[in-house]
Amino acid sequence: MELISALQFLRLHEIPEAWVETIWDLEFTEIKSIDDHLDEQLTASGEKAFGNLYQCFLSYADQEQSAGTDGAPQNIWAVLIENGVSIKTLVAVLSFFVLSGKAKVANVQQRVTSLHAASVYLLMLGIPGSVAHKVYHEVLFDTCSDLSRHCWPQVTGKKRKKDGLKSARAECKRSKPQRKDTSDMQEEEEEEEELNFSGSDLKKIRDAVFLLVQSHLRLLQTFPLKDRPQSRLNYTPIFIWLLYFEPVTGELNFGAVQDINKLRSVPEMAFYGLQRLCSPEHGDQAESLRRVFHHLLYVILMMNKGSGGKPSLLEVSQAVLATRDQAIHFVCHLVDELKELALPFLQILLQHICIQMVEKSEFRSHGAQAVGMLLSEMSGTEYARFIKWLSNCSRSRKMVCRLFSVDVVMVLLEQPERRPEECQDPDLAHFLPHKFLIQNLLFSRQMDESPTVQGHALSCLAKCLEIPSLNVTRAVHNLFSATGTQTVLEGETTHGTTHGILASQQKTYRTLPFRTVEISTTENSGYDENMAHILLCVKDSKTVVRKSALQALVGLLKHGVVPLSPENLARLSERSRDPAVSVKKKALQSVGELLAAKPECSVVQKAWLQGVVPAVLDSENTVQDKALEALHEVLLRPIQPYTVGCHLDASERLTWDLLDLLCHDFQNLSHYFSRAFPIWSRQNMFTAAFMTNLISHTEADHAAGAWLLLSKSIRFSPILPYSKILDAWYRMISSKDANVATSCHILCVMGDIAVHLDELTKNRIVSDLMAWLKTFNLSIETITAALETLQRLGSSESIKNTQAFLNQHGGELVSVCEAHLAAILLNEKGAENLNEELMIKHLHTLGVLSLLCPAKFNKRIVLLVESVLTARSDKPAEGQVELPASQPLSQFRANSLPTRVRAHGVITLGKLCLQHEELVPKYLPVFARELEVGTEVAVRNNVVVAMCDLCVRYTAIVDQYIPNISACLLDTDAAIREQALIMLTNLLQEEFVKWKGSLFFCFMLALIDPVPAIASLCRYCLVHQLLKKNPDLFSQHFIECIFHFNSYTKHKSYNTFPQSESDKVRFSLKGVENRDKRFQIYRFLLENCNDVQRFNVTNKINQAILASFADEELPLDAGGAEILSEAFNILSLKELKLQTVGGVTAGEEAEEENMATMAKVALQAAQKKTASQIHKKVFIEHTVPLIISLKSLLEEKRSPALRDLMAFLQVTMQDNPNKMKELFSGDEQLLAEVEFSLKTAEKERVMSEMDHQFENFTLTGDANTPTAQDSPQRSRLILPVRFATPQPARPYQLSEQLSQTDGRCMNRRTRDKRIRPNSDTLKGTVLEKRAVGDRAISTPKVGTLNLTFDEGFSAIFSDRGTSLGGDTSVDHVQPQEQQAPQLRQWDVQSPLRQKKRNPKFGK
Question: What are the Basic residues biased-composition ranges (predicted)?
């Protein structure tokens, strides 16, 4: 017999029966040695012998399977018994080989023979009669089933895990080397052994694994597992693991009839095995499908689900992605095959993908694609039911669920829209259109409390407009259009409808719960509301929200959803100066995209210039580079040679349009634009060819832009023929109506090429220029450019020669100006013939010349300029004595000169002071006095400019007048306040001015300026300019702010700097009416402090204020009580709390996947613990004694500050009730009073809410309005359910505000706490978590019971292998009296009564 001879190598007759009995008694859990001789002989058996044995058993198995009832071949079990082969011994010997190869230290031969032995055993099980002959043993069967995982080397996974652990340790302690423990060394030794497997060795093991898996499939075809639930459960994770065993070439065809011998890869066989497990012969199909889908869930999620615990993420690779795609197609195949049986489990699978998704964008993207592919297998009704569930999931408390719901929406929007008639349930039909996805799921997330979700929703809104779908585009347009039908949010119903209005307008609306219904007839209310939200997000405090809002705004503008108004574009361009670098880059990219889409729109061109050009001077190099690249691509690269009659393409027209705007409308951007050219010159962009092309455009209609570029670039260009430039110069000189901007640019070009001109040409130009200047027909800007050109024409290597040239030609102009001023000022009737513009030009020319040739200015000219500002009783002449300098300009006898002339006179006088130091002490008091009592805004504004310029050159002299300048921050005119703010910020940045006196407090008052633009500018200057230079600026001045703004001067250290009585009144914020302003300043300071600074501020408040009053160093009078109350209110501010000690921000769960490593988590926990301990210690040692002492003192004095002290204790008690009870254990009376106050306040709050609800219950008589008799908490009949769909936790109550809904704006805190009268939540249902496999009831809606599962109570089986059966399918609901408990009655007792009852109380 061939079979008997094949069994000879096993030496079954030599095996002792005692050993066999021992193996069976141990139930195949341990390997026992037979004897040394037999062990060696058995171990030496090769794989060839096992191969022969396998083929023999296979032939018998095939014969048994193919033969009919009659003529069956000889039974294999009879053959074995007739030849004296003990089946029990055979099974024991096979287990010897199986367990030998399972060890980690097993060599290649042991592993291969182990796999072959397991294959033989499984083949034996598949032959009919195996159970009767006791071949089947559950433990051995499970060992053989899972043997492939033990025999296949797991090198890569261990090494990667170990490397990750080492990197985590390195982040914790890099200075101290890690000592290897015993387990680490043992693992390294094992890895070394495993790493010794060669390619041929791995090939042998792979072939053996292939044979074993093939044996599994043969077994599943003939050996039913219906009565073996544990073995059936163990099979599923084995096949799931085999899916990753090796890559598969080509696509898998799950629909074809599977022949095991034709399967060529292990994963392909694994999928076939999963399909066989779902067949009826292996148990209940529904139960099998649930189990298979549960394990495929983690394949689709790209997670590794071990025996227990939290799943870990796999490293995304091509192999993992391919396996994921195969799993998705396999699920689709099962749904196609099993139809209605598989659809409920597909619904569960989809929901669990949403629930268990992680935050990483790559995983979310692949997960959303998977949901889209699986949803394509659903009918319209099932699809609508899932969308309804997804709508609830989008309001989950878990941030990742809300984030992933947006990703799913984006995938579904790319699929064809389903028609409402595809849904058989009319109540679900409205979930099918894309309009519902956009308006109810996507747009509502833009008001999410999580910045991550909010930002993602905003960016996806912009992507919606790129989808080539008319319905999607129309739905987005409806959100921002002024007309159109509006929809109702899911879960919200309409109450109190006015049928006449609704019928006429064809609109529906929602009402806010428990609020009066207001129906607006304004057609554009939805547009204004939604657009206002987008614009508000552009200025959000979170960087990610601002970036995404920019993307959304650009999409809306680019596709014409919202108008290209200057207001909308201004919000876009101003973000290029955002504090965050990423937002600035996004803003530059956004305006660039918009310009590319709308190149001919002038408002877009202006927005692009305002956004990109100032970014050239950005402090961040990457932003500078991005701005320079954009400017080069748009303004320089398109320039081509110009010929008359040539056609300009779109890019060239855009270039010259933008340059024209720079010349005329945005001359203030010239300074920023100029800074780009030195950088471009270092990149060799101004070649001879480029400059020649540029010069050719100076004769075109757009010559102004060409001259602008020439004026900036010609100094960096090589020597060129300048004939065209000289021709343009002569044309300009002879022209009477030359454009001012173009004239200035030509003059600048002439100055740049002066070094390349010969002397004859220079002299001719100088002569023409002097004649041109003496006419005084030029504008002020042209005069400045001409004088600068004159200076450059006379420049030479010798400074003496240059100054002589300036004195000669400048002196001529000074004489002309002096004669003109004298004719007006020294002539009694000169003012009657005054030409205001001509007078201003002469004054301006004198001011510029005073910096070029100061030697030509005598005392008479100074007196003439002074006379422009004042009137004298006798005419000044050269050599006369000046007027006293102590008088302000407005105190002189008023002259008849206009305000504009006097304002220019101030600037000219300031320039004279810059070059003549002896004039500074004379005129500085005049300027300072003018700031105090002057009435002319233009004059006083120029005085601020002049004094700040003088401060740069004469810092020590001007320092005493800084309080006069800082007082302008509170000026009655907004222009002067803004000018003073800008000038002082520049001086503080360059350290020409120090933070002394009242300067800091003037800046604080600018924070609450009535003009929002000035207040915003002040915040920017303080936070982003001045605070960076002095990080402790706010914390150092915080305590003094308390004393200063309350006008308290009795403290020995604070608020002691000299200050006039008028300034004390102007800077005071004393009184209850100014409390909000003071606390606005306090909050701003604390928000911009770190934890260390907040901690120091708290200590200073304790020491400088609380301790001073407790020790009676400061009197507890009316002023002292106000300071003390202020201190208690500040200590109660949430901004003063340490962020390290505080909890996680709402909406942002501290999930492990958000952390880089566990080391960072441990470090954060240690920091939090340390900060909490220090804070507690300081509070115990310093604050508590002061509070107790002050309470006694305030009670004795009957001070009103006692109320604020108790309020502070209430806030502290609410935050840390247990800690407060421990801290105040020594003062039981104080503790009881605080607790009593808290209970009373809570009771009042609850009663107030109840009263408010009852009032709103009776507002309307609509049938949908809940009443006290029709309570949503009434009991409902919960029927037993066999299967449950997972549902996220109760949706958190955010009010998703859409354009179709009521337009009332509410703050986020109110929205989160809103109660909905028609909530779908089953109130009062008690969730009971029981044994594995049980379920918890959650949120039944309109007769449909949506249930949830997870580890421990999952409807999809957990890894512990439990099933639903018996009582586990019954859902227990507590009785009605337990479901709706009444409001808890407060056990409130007065502390005075407690004191009477307990004499020891309070001692």
Answer: 1393-1403
| Sequential DSSP letters for 952-1015 | HHSHHHHGGGHHHHHGGGG-SSHHHHHHHHHHHHHHHHTTSS-S-TTHHHHHHHHHT-SSHHHH
Find, among 366, 481, 491, 476, the residue nearest to 430 by Cα: 491
pLDDT tens digits along 927-958: 998 888 888 899 999 999 999 999 999 999 99
Judge contact between 740 and 723, C-beta under 8 A.
Answer: no
The pLDDT, as a whole number, for residue 1217 is 61
Residue type, 98: V
CB 1003 within 8 A of CB 969: yes
Other CB atoms within a 10 A radius of the CB of residue 1169 amount to 12
Retrieve residue 995's tokens: 């933070």
Q: What are phi and psi of 1347, to 5 degrees?
A: -115, 170
Q: Give Cα 144 to chain centroid, integer Å.
A: 51
Mean pLDDT along residues 142-151: 87
The residue type at 926: V
488 by DSSP, 3-state: which?
Answer: coil
In this structure, what token pair is assigned to residue 922? 């004379």
For residue 493, which phi and psi values (nearest 5 degrees)? -120, 165
Q: How far apart are CA 1191 and CA 1185, in angstroms?
A: 10
Which residue from 296, 142, 303, 151 is spatially nearest to 230, judged by alpha carbons? 142
Confidence label for 368 from pLDDT (cuts 50, 70 and 90): very high
Diameter of the chain measured on Cα atoms: 149
Give CA separation, 32 vs 12, 15, 35, 139, 503, in Å.
Answer: 16, 12, 9, 16, 88
Contacts of the segment 360-365: beta carbons below 8 A, 24+ positions apart: 360/313, 360/1153, 362/316, 363/301, 363/302, 363/313, 363/316, 364/403, 364/404, 364/407, 365/407
pLDDT of 194 higher than 90: no
Confidence band, pLDDT 50/70/90 cuts, at residue 47: confident
Residue 1315 has pLDDT above 80, yes or no: no
Of 134, 178, 182, 104, nearest to 28 by C-alpha is 134
DSSP string, 1324-1384: TPPP---STT--EE---BTTB--EE--TTS-SS--TT-----GGGGPPP---HHHHSPPPP
Q: What is the pLDDT of residue 980?
A: 94
The predicted model gives 20-47 an average pLDDT of: 79
Residue with tokens 């105190």: 891
Give CA separation, 1335 vs 1320, 1327, 1342, 1370, in Å.
20, 9, 20, 9
DSSP for residue 900: H
Task: Report CA-CA distances (Å) from 479 to 435, 446, 474, 1296.
Answer: 10, 13, 9, 13
Confidence check: pLDDT of 103 > 70: yes
How many whole angstroms separate alpha carbon 1382 and alpha carbon 342? 44
For residue 153, which of 116, 227, 208 has the smallest C-alpha distance?
208
Is residue 630 scored above 80 in pLDDT?
yes
Asked whether 1064 and 1053 are in contact (CB, 8 A), the reply is no
- For residues 846 and 858, what is the distance between their CA atoms, to the nearest angstrom? 12
| Backbone φ and ψ of 104, nearest 5° | -70, -25
Alpha helices in 312-469 (DSSP H): 318-338, 343-355, 361-375, 380-393, 399-413, 434-436, 451-464
Angle made by CA atoms 473, 477, 479, in degrees to the nearest 5: 125
| Cβ-Cβ contacts under 8 Å for 1319 (sequence gap 6 or more) | 491, 1272
pLDDT more than 70, % of the chain: 74
What integer pLDDT is reported at residue 408 of this predicted model? 94
**Pairwise CA distance, residues 320 & 298, whole Å:** 11
Residue with tokens 């669920």: 401
| Positive or negative torsion for Cα 397, 398, 400, 404 | negative
User: Per residue in 31-51, is it b (16+ CB within 10 Å) or e — as a string?
Assistant: eeebeeebeeebeebebebbb
